Amino acid sequence: MDQYTLNLIFIGLTFALYVGIAIWARASSTSEFYAAGRGVHPVVNGMATGADWMSAASFISMAGLIAFVGYDNSVFLMGWTGGYVLLALLLAPYLRKFGKFTVPDFIGERFYSQTARIVAVICLIVASVTYVIGQMTGVGVAFARFLEVDKDIGLFIGASVVFVYAVFGGMKGITYTQVAQYVVLITAYTIPAIFISIYLTGNPIPPLGLFSDHSEAGVPLLQKLDQVVTDLGFNSYTGHHTNTLNMVLFTLALMIGTAGLPHVIIRFFTVPKVSDARWSAGWALVCIALLYLSAPAVGAMARLNIIDTIYPNGTEQTAISYDERPEWMQTWEVTGLLKFEDKNNDGRIQYYNDKSEAFAAEAQARGWKGSELDVNRDILVLANPEIAKLPRWVIALVAAGALAAALSTAAGLLLAISSAISHDLLKKTIMPNISDKGELMSARIAMAVAIVVATYLGLNPPGFAAQTVALAFGLAAASLFPAIMMGIFSKRVNNKGAVAGMLTGLIFTLVYIIGVKTGTHGPWFFGVSAEGIGTFGMIINFTVSLVVSRLTAPPPPEIQAIVDSLRDPTHVGQAVILDEGTE
């Protein structure tokens, strides 16, 4: 059976599964649409959270980022997993105990202010829309490669599938669909990793294979990789070559941003009890770790495989000719994500770091006039089975896994957006007397509109947003996270302080990241990168909130009593504040 047919079968079967689950788990009330009726088991919620979190960035991009940079990009592993520790310890159980449906709902009630609620909605929409652009773009890229269609057509197909199971199923349908998507994506990620680890090291466990000996060279795999990359003028794979301060700040921004992303937080509103929220975070970490522990191995092994493909007899020998390039290169050239330019007209593929001054003399002696191969980092995981010459069914499985990762996160983000619009803007602000049936219909309409907008932005992504996910994480870290933290742990922070802090953090971080990414200005704030500025945005938010609160009247006694009750271990197993959607 040819590769295209296999891809079509695997992707078609998984899509049929998602739609079938959505029909089975269709939401019939606002409680089911927003929070799955608060009846999701912690293990099931952990799997759904894992799928919700492991987006196209985790499945497609992360291993590529690590592969082409090495140790310095381990910040993604540390930051993204560390965020779940913050969630489990500082946010999830308290938010579940408060008993609301959305993040803006918590902020609006805790800070007794419709203005605070609306500002939180704005922060949520800006961060979530930015994040969803990458997911929709990833859907288009995966379809373009594996179904051999235009990426725009692929995006329309993916949006249609999300429309069916998100609009009708709401959180209830999305939750059980995400469980299926988690099984698909984790299987698709680990099976190729196991095959490649066995081939290169003889060890079937990829994280252990990373530290095992290379089968042919007889030296540790990482030592072998360090040797081949430095022989081509690249930085050592295991060394630290970037600014340490920026690395720390970026890690913190990813951690805090993860803990503050609304589509992640709302998953913890779906469990029956407060204690289940902590267990859900723990199970989510287990589910995420299965992929994240393999990602460094996938990245390192794929980088080594690429170089071995180009220099089959070693980096000191002649590279392969362009006419003899393997099939996977020919396939990915069609997508435009892999490009070759014969700069010295010798018909061979020179691949090296042509920006390395130390390697310039060696390159000149070999007759090279610049690196001739441009490999987009996002293709690494998708191309990995082809590079390693794995069976065709594995390639088809990876295609289904990549789409599952992108669609699962897109659905979670879109639900967060639609819930904020229908529940916080409509029900809580504009039409407080709307019926449950009317609110459910408005939630579905808001979801449909959000999907249309996300599809349009996926087709026409803004340059600054398409370049980095730092915008979404930085905004969540700088705007929502401090408000949630202070709402839980400080009785003195009032509505004026919360609003001032959120707006200051939002505007500062938004202007800084857009300015740096579009070239309007450089990293002027102590030389901090756009990726790490969310940490300073968070500090500014905390500072402004506390100062303004101290200069204005304290919250009413009843609000201070609610804050006390949130941290009261009495009745820790159940929600003791007003729990929406329950009888």
3D architecture notes:
This protein has 583 residues and is mainly α. The protein has a single domain (3-301, 389-566), classed as Sodium/glucose cotransporter, CATH 1.20.1730.10. The chain has helices spanning 3-24, 30-35, 42-53, 56-69, 75-98, 103-110, 114-146, 151-167, 170-201, 206-209, 221-231, 244-260, 262-265, 274-292, 295-310, 327-335, 357-365, 380-387, 392-430, 436-459, 463-467, 470-489, 495-518, 533-551, 557-566, and strands at 338-340, 373-375. Strands 1-2 form a two-stranded antiparallel sheet. The longest helix is centred in the last third of the chain and has 39 residues, at 392-430.
Q: What labels describe this entry?
A:
single chain, 583 residues, mainly alpha, Sodium/glucose cotransporter, two-stranded antiparallel sheet, 70% helix
Could you give a short description of this structure?
The protein is mainly alpha-helical. It contains 25 helices and two strands. It has helices at 3-24, 30-35, 42-53, 56-69, 75-98, 103-110, 114-146, 151-167, 170-201, 206-209, 221-231, 244-260, 262-265, 274-292, 295-310, 327-335, 357-365, 380-387, 392-430, 436-459, 463-467, 470-489, 495-518, 533-551, 557-566, and strands spanning 338-340, 373-375.
